[in-house]
Amino acid sequence: MTNDLALQILAACRHALPPARPLALHEPSLGDDERRLVDECIRSGWISTAGPYVERFERAIAAYTGSPHVVATVNGTSALHGALLALGVSRNDEVLVPSLTFVATANAIAYCGATPHFVDVDLATLGVDHRALEDHLQASAIRSASGLANRRTGQRIAALIVMHTFGHPANLEGLLEVAVRWGLPLVEDAAESLGSTYRGRQTGTLGRIGVLSFNGNKIVTTGGGGAILTSDPELGHRARHLCTTARVPAGVRFIHDEIGYNYRLPSLNAALGLAQLERLPQLLHAKRSLAARYAASFAECAGARLFSPPEDAHSNHWLNTLILDQAQADRLDEIVSVLNGDGIGVRPAWTPVHELAMYAEAPRANLDVTNGLARRIVNLPSSPALASNE
Ligand SMILES: *Cc1c(COP(=O)(O)O)cnc(C)c1O
User: Fold this and answer.
1) Any residues with Cβ below 6 Å from ligand 1, and which?
2) Is this structure's pTM higher than 0.85?
3) If you write DSSP's letter for every residue of 258-307 in order, what string do you get?
């Protein structure tokens, strides 16, 4: 085996993947059932948000996840915004959030007029580090009659968002403990983790409220779409109201009793989602066998390791992830370019959100792990079709 890390990684990927090129990072898996249901939806005439498809889709998500209340939305970002509004996050609040996430998680906080307060992740899960969070709160938060506040800014800390990175469940037990101890509602950004379970329960259903995304690159897609999940009927009702333009029937008219949002999913997308949800067990199977194949191919790789989640979590393996050793961090761009040059669509992780210009002044904990990791992550092609037995 060659010592050159880029060539080693290239060889391992070639070994794990079918020969066709180019390979995208993630492509949807669509078939005849999707075509049939969308066609049926068009012929029914119910293509917008009214009609039976959205409700059927919401019931199917409820049945799959075990979440009693589900609101389907136009995308995952609007689901996050609706969930935070339903919790009462408002102007001048702060919301604890990992910096290692897609920008939408922080943007949804900003849409509420609130400020993201960035916290670090751990190497075992790539999700929020509950121990570091506890230490950070002890050092920088203060309890008052109106709840929790940031000692330095004086602003209320209104909620904690955790994200299940690349599909791998965060340490929910530890995080729920911290959330309860500090009186913070826990929001799960489960945009990437539909089908992942933590101690037997679906991610997105363990916190006060959870959010899914059905964007084109997620494990299940509706083209664009999202959902809010909660077991609290009042919170579910509040989220539904805010995402449905705050519409209240009043005789033959409607009134709108506050500023709401036109965030409900159209039927065409819901019809596509119904067919996709049916295929989720198959998609999960394909994802897990691809992950196993990568694990075998990278077993001997010196200089990088394939990320694998802890035992108590059952991941959907949405995106397979290679983590370069610390000493190899400066090889990241070269590795990405060598693999892309061979038609293997790998990509580095997001730029940590705290580094983006609009959040440069946002409050933050120590982010050493995030800063170190962000330069060492290579996401590998993970479309379900890449597992031959799909
Ligand atoms: C995909 C994603 C979202 C939501 O994205 P949409 O494109 O708006 O559906 C939110 N958070 C994370 C972590 C995501 O990966």
Assistant:
1) 75-77, 101-102, 104-105, 163, 189, 191-192, 213, 215, 226
2) yes
3) S---B-BPPHHHHHHHHHHHHTHHHHHHHHHHHHHHHHHHHTT-SSEEE-
